[in-house]
Amino acid sequence: MPIHDVSYRHWQGTRSNRPPSFVLGAAQLRVALRRRGVRVLLLVSGLFVIAYLGILYLETMPREGALGFLRDIPFVSLDGRTMKFFLMRQRLLQYMLCLAAGAEVIALDRRYRALQIYLARPLRVPDYLAGKAVPMLLLLSLVTWVPAILLLVLKSVATASLEWLRDEPHLPFAIMGYSTLLVASLTSLTLAVSSMTSSPRLASGQLVAVLLLPMAAADILTGLTHNDNWRLLSLDSLLDQVCSWMFRAEPPYELSPWAALVMLFLMIAGAIALLLRRVRAVDVVGGS
Amino acid sequence: MGFEVEHLSVRYGRQQALQDVSLRFESGALGLLGPNGAGKSSLLRTLLGFVAPSAGSVRVLGEPVGRDAHELRRRIGYHPEDDVLIPAMNAVGSVALCGQLAGLDHTDALQRAHEILYFVGLGEVRYRIATTYSQGMRQRLKLAQALVHDPELLILDEPTNGLDPNGRQEMLKLIRDLATAKGIHLVLSSHLLPDVEAVCDQVVLLHNGRVLTAGRMEDLLKSAQETYEVRVKGAPEAFAAALLARGARTTSSPRGSLLVQTPAHGVRLLFDAAHTSGCQIRHLVPARESLVEMFAQAVDRGPHADP
Amino acid sequence: MPTLEVQDVSLWYGEVIGLSGASFTLEPGVTGLLGPNGAGKSTLLKILTAQIRPSRGAVRILGTDPWGNPDLFRRVGYCPETDSIYPELSAPEFIASMLRLSGLVGVDASRKAEEALERVGLEPKLRKPMAAFSKGMRQRAKLAQALALAPEVLLLDEPLNGMDPIGRRETMDLVVELGREGHTVLVSSHILHEVEQMTPHILLLHQGRVLAHGEVHEIRDLIEDRARRVRLRCREPHRLAARLMELGAVSGMRFTDEPDVLVVETAHADVFFAKMTQLGYEGSLGIEEVQPLDDDLQSVFEYLVR
Question: Residue B59 needs a FRET pair 20 to 30 A away by CA distance; which of A20, A161, B246, C203 works?
């Protein structure tokens, strides 16, 4: 047997073809899940789901039972109205998830100039951004469409019927459509805000400001002018409006849902354009 | 083959960073030198595929650098000059991540990460979060990240920055070992010419975006005829006077020793002068131009930028 | 008369010791301040510039205790390691404003600032804000700030850091020149080659203590437990080896891959070199090169810092 020393050894293996954004995303997810804030928020969201499981339980109880009277309460039914409530009422939690899992990711990398490490690998800027988006995409999905669809599937199994789908055939599309819009807009906005600064704390502050200030401004301006078009400024109002429209419910504002939809798309496109401007490969080799 | 550029020009907007640069680096260790703004960063950016040349061609490891430059980076290791690290991860995690990003699978990457961290001397502290590292440790961590995927071309930008003297010697030893014994193509960009002299067998000197000098170190640093670097103990003044009397000319070298230019039979003459003046010869070698002197002379007489 | 005196100075940061009973004196000329990271160099410079007060001991610069004597710093220049510049100012503005803080007025301050910038090789009228400076230019600006009042004592913390080879050469020349002009210059650096080119005089700190102070070759002579290794190139290495054995004063010899090289170990350098010089003078063995392998600053540093 030959004697080996502890000096450098070449690697004898084959390279795998996993997309680098997957690898980066998985690592980011592990980092995000280590944060206590993220875990607490996921837990709270889990409580929501448990509450809805309770509703489902009541709904499937026989009317003749002791608690049968509860079924006459309008809320005790997993229909379009309650599902919309489920998705919309968790908005604050979703914002907080953005803060906990997303606000700092690019700001931290800028602070420690980690981009220089990432982009010196077989990784392009879009791969990097996709990897950075993975934890937010997954976590936000985990508090929106994933439990919602799961509840509906459970309901179908428990009642052994697809009656709800006949009554409200738009429901799966509404859940998926609204969730996709919410996840995409929050993720792109959060990452864009995070890329603006190299101070993680400032990034969090800026995200709070970006989420809250337009909301307040829209409230004030609408109040002053009695014109709901000001609501176009506020991401929160836009999401509310689009959500009600998709679930075929009474819209909260006098605002064309199409205008709201276009505005949302503009916001997402703007955030992505900003990201691509802020994260550039040329800076990888420092020249100062 | 390490890399080959032909008639390469790079510009950023109106600023011409590189102009008609042609270089060929076969194997070994190449020192990349130049004053600030000479175009070193631009050359590195081009080799890594971050900027597209405005003219000319670039081949790295035998492949043309073009749209698929990022694929080529699987085979390149890059150690940036800046103080960089991956936040919120320990050293093993971040080195393994770097390996995975370059295409190693999870277990391979983890195993390599441990091995490489030992190699760079961070074995004992490999589970610490990288943000708590001292500057010297961060420098070693950067080397580990550049090496984990076993690159064929290793580009090091100021790798000894901020290291203390012993740390610097260790780093240079590791780098030299990689280039000489492990067959990795090494490009070392540095302002510390003694480092380059210790590691590299070839140098390229850039100035104002052009190649000023390029070649093998031994050809560039010619030893001057019949000139010696001498240090004596005893009476240096008497020694100098004795040399003068024998027809030699003396100047003081930057390192506090004496540069002696002798007529023929130099060494005998030096011992003779030492004997007469009652000095001990403590140091006597043929004077060789240092890289610092070569650099200074080349830049002084080199062409200057176009306005 | 020493210009700078440090007597039994210690400093603790809570339980952490920064400097431990350091004593030394400096006279006009250049002294290199060396030591591994964490040896106490920065602590020492902070004490000398009155940024922290020593826990024990006395410091005198030009006969005065720097603590609580801001006036002293018109005669003591300091070039810190950190990037302590104002990025929005131009270099002349920056230095002139620092000079005004020291009590100079208007035109005088601008003139002195321009002189200092010229001396460090920066364009004295440059209006560019320092945010656009390269690392090397920022270093030069800081150096100019330290020099501007032509202080008698100069404390330079890693002044060459980040400079390109031309900047390094010019700055090293400047330091040597300042020493010759009679300034007391204490300059810290990790690049031992460069320290050797600036001065043979060093102050070596390690673990908060002064390990060595003086000329490099003298210090090497004092390290007795390390036999010196000398590489000799000659026409007849085997005969040379035999002669040296007869004469004594060598404790070991080794032949290498090169056929005309003999490496000698000796514990008695003086005796050995005297005999070797004699052999060279006699000339029959053809000694061509004499190269000590471990008497430079790098070896001294490695032997002392363990």
Answer: A20
